[in-house]
Amino acid sequence: MAATAANPADTLAHLSQNPLMPSRRPVTLHRLREMYAAGEKITMLTCYDALFARVLDEAGVDVLLVGDSLGMVLNGHPTTLSVSMEEMVYHTGSVARGNRTAWLIADMPFGSYQESTDLCMRNAVKLMQAGAQMVKLEGGGWTVPLVRRLVDSGIPVCAHLGFTPQSVHALGGYRVQGRNEASAELLAADAKDLAEAGAALLVLEMVPSATARSLTEALPIPVIGIGAGAGCSGQVLVLHDMLGLKAGEPLRFVRNFMEGAGGIEQAVRQYVADVRAGRFPDEKLHGF
Ligand code: KIV
C-alpha cells in the first residue's frame, strides 16, 4: 500500500538525502558580500513559517525574509500597519526553527522603531533573540541614526527604500517611487547615507529599472530589488505571490513560478535558477 505523509516531518523527508546534514554551508553576511563582489545574484523570498523555511532553504534560496507582509498575506489586513512585534517575534521563531542554512532577516514592524533609538534597539534585540540574523527597517534620512546604533551594537541591518509599505498612506497608495530626477536623486542620497551608517543590504521596491540600476552601481552594498528591474544585485518576491496564490490581478513585477512547475519545491528552484541566470526579472514584462 502506498504510504501517505502523515506529518510535516514526513512531508519534508525527501528534501535532503540525510535529514541531519544540510546540503550547503550556512549563508553568512560574509558569503553574501562574496557573492556581491563576484557579481553573483542574491536570491531572497519572504517566509513566515517553519515548513516553508525548510523548503526554501533546501531549494537554495540565499535569504529568507520574515516580512511584515505577513499581516496582509496571512492575516488579511489591507496594509502592513497593524502587524505587531509579538507577531513578528512569533513568525521569526517559526522560520528560524525550520531554516538551517539561509540568511534570516526579520522586518521591524510599524511602530517598533519610529519613536526612539532605544525602542528600536529593544525591539531589534527581540527579533535577534527569536532567531533573526539581521533586521530590516523602512525609510531613509531619519532612520540613519537608528541604523548606526543597531550596527554599532552588533545587529546587522537591511535598509528598505523606494516604495515603503509602512508609509503607504503618506505615499498616496501603491505607487512607483523615484520616477523624476529630484526623487531619484533623493533616493540615491538616502541609500548612500544608509550604507555609510552601516546598512549591509538594501531592499529597493517599485523603482524604475534605470534608476535602480544606477543606484545599485553607485552603492557599495548589495541592492535587492522588488519591482526594481534586472540591474539590482539580487531579487526578492513575496513567496505567496510567486507561487500564484495572490487573489486578483497579478502584480506587474511578479512571475507565477508555479506555471509549468511540478510542485512548490520545483517552482522555488526555478526562481533561484532564473534570478541567478538573469532570466528573472524580464525588463520588458516586469520592469517600470
Ligand atoms: O514585508 C515584505 O514582504 C517586504 C518585501 C516586500 C520586501 O518588505
Q: How much strand content do the residues show?
A: 5-15%
The main sheet orders its strands as 1-2-3-4-5-6-7-8
Can you list the ligands bound to this structure?
A: 3-methyl-2-oxobutanoic acid
Distance between the termini: 53 Å
Description of the structure:
This protein has 288 residues and is an alpha/beta fold. 39% of the residues lie in helices and 13% in strands. It has helices at 8-12, 29-37, 50-58, 70-73, 85-98, 117-129, 144-152, 181-197, 209-218, 239-242, 264-276, 283-286; strands spanning 42-46, 63-66, 103-107, 134-138, 157-162, 201-205, 223-226, 234-237. The structure holds 3-methyl-2-oxobutanoic acid. Residues 46, 65, 67-69, 107, 203, 205, 226, 236, 238 line the site of 3-methyl-2-oxobutanoic acid.
SSE topology:
Elements: H1 8-12, H2 29-37, E1 42-46, H3 50-58, E2 63-66, H4 70-73, H5 85-98, E3 103-107, H6 117-129, E4 134-138, H7 144-152, E5 157-162, H8 181-197, E6 201-205, H9 209-218, E7 223-226, E8 234-237, H10 239-242, H11 264-276, H12 283-286
Parallel strand pairs: 1-2, 1-8, 2-3, 3-4, 4-5, 5-6, 6-7, 7-8
Helix pairs in contact: 3-5, 6-7
Bound molecules: 3-methyl-2-oxobutanoic acid.
Compact summary:
The protein is α/β, with parallel strands linked by helices and 288 residues long. It contains 12 helices and 8 strands.
For the structure shown, list the relevant keywords:
single chain; 288 residues; alpha/beta; 8-stranded parallel β-barrel; binds 3-methyl-2-oxobutanoic acid
